[in-house]
């Protein structure tokens, strides 16, 4: 299975790529690690394939006289045109991606890159301490990935080690019953809209499918792997 780790800047994609790969290896799987972030100075692991051996954001900036955002767009276009090794025969190939999500989600390049891999899914990583008061926008972002990439997407809340036990319980309760995100009855149209949207979004991201994890400590990795088994399951009933 090809697992694309996506998420906003600093959400913990690279650390998850590193530590979840080690976890899968320790579980007996054959794992390959691919760095698709041409802007990374040091992803923190030794990838089996590294896009930086073809180009970096910096080299494109110099060659094409572009700024950093233009260069990352050009990098993603180049990536969409090239052949990334498939590592067939591996159980899991983990792809680390850039924190600049726009070229992945709002341009053709992301879909072209991802759709080159038939047996695939995305992990959409959110920074839980930063998002805990705004899970709605996280769901929207994850849903954008799901729609744009036409790929099964698992919303994953990372950095759970930075929350205390009570906060974790509170978040789990809120995920299980999105309406509870509002402690009181909606008092205006905006709150009512949030509540209705959360109900709809929980259909795409069922509570049991939104693991709270820590890329740092490995908390939640077992749960994440179980969800990946379910995604692989041909039955398709993921609730
Ligand atoms: N406490 C804690 N820190 C984490 C966790 N995951 C990542 N971090 C820290 O968050 C920071 C960003 O982590 P990265 O793995 O570089 O995040 P990224 O999403 O790859 O960042 P970009 O590639 O720049 O978008 C680093 O300081 C990590 O050590 C986690 O689960 N818990
Ligand atoms: Mg990274």
Give the CATH topology: Rossmann fold
Overall CATH class: Alpha Beta
Helix content bin: 40-55%
Q: How many DSSP E strands?
A: 6
User: Can you tell me the CATH architecture?
Assistant: 3-Layer(aba) Sandwich
With helices defined by DSSP (H or I, 4 residues minimum), what is the helix count? 10
Rounded Rg: 18 Å
What's the overall average pLDDT, rounded? 90
Q: What ligand molecules are bound, each kind once?
A: guanosine-5'-triphosphate, magnesium ion
Return residue spans where pLDDT drops below 50 for at least 5 consecutive residues.
235-239
Along the chain, the helix and strand elements come as EHEEHHEHHEHHEHHH
Count of separate structural domains: 1
Order of the strands making up the biggest sheet? 3-2-4-1-5-6
The SS-based structural class is alpha/beta
Strand content: 5-15%
Q: Roughly how many Å apart are the termini?
A: 20 Å
Largest beta-sheet characterization: 6 strands, parallel
Give me the CATH superfamily: P-loop containing nucleotide triphosphate hydrolases
The outline comes out as globular
């Amino acid at each position: 299975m090809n697992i694309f780790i996506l998420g906003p800047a600093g959400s913990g994609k690279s650390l998850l790529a590193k530590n979840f790969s080690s976890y899968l290896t320790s579980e007996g799987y054959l794992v390959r690690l691919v760095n698709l972030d041409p802007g990374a100075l040091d992803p923190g692991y030794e990838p089996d394939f590294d896009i930086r051996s073809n180009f970096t954001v910096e080299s494109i900036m110099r060659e094409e006289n572009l700024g950093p955002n233009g260069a990352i767009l050009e990098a993603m276009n180049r990536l969409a045109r090239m052949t990334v090794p498939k590592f067939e025969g591996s159980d899991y190939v983990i792809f680390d991606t850039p924190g600049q999500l726009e070229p992945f989600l709002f341009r053709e390049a992301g879909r072209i890159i991802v759709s080159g891999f038939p047996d695939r899914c995305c992990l959409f990583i959110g920074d839980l301490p930063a998002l805990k008061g705004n899970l709605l926008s996280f769901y929207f972002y994850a849903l954008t990935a799901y729609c744009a990439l036409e790929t099964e997407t698992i919303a994953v809340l990372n950095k759970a080690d930075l929350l205390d036990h009570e906060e974790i319980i509170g978040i789990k309760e809120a995920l299980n019953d999105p309406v509870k995100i509002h402690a009181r009855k909606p008092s205006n149209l905006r709150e009512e809209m949030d509540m209705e949207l959360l109900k709809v979004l929980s259909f795409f991201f069922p509570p049991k499918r939104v693991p709270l994890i820590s890329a740092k400590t490995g908390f939640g990795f077992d749960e994440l792997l179980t969800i990946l088994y379910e995604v692989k399951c041909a039955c398709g009933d993921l609730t």
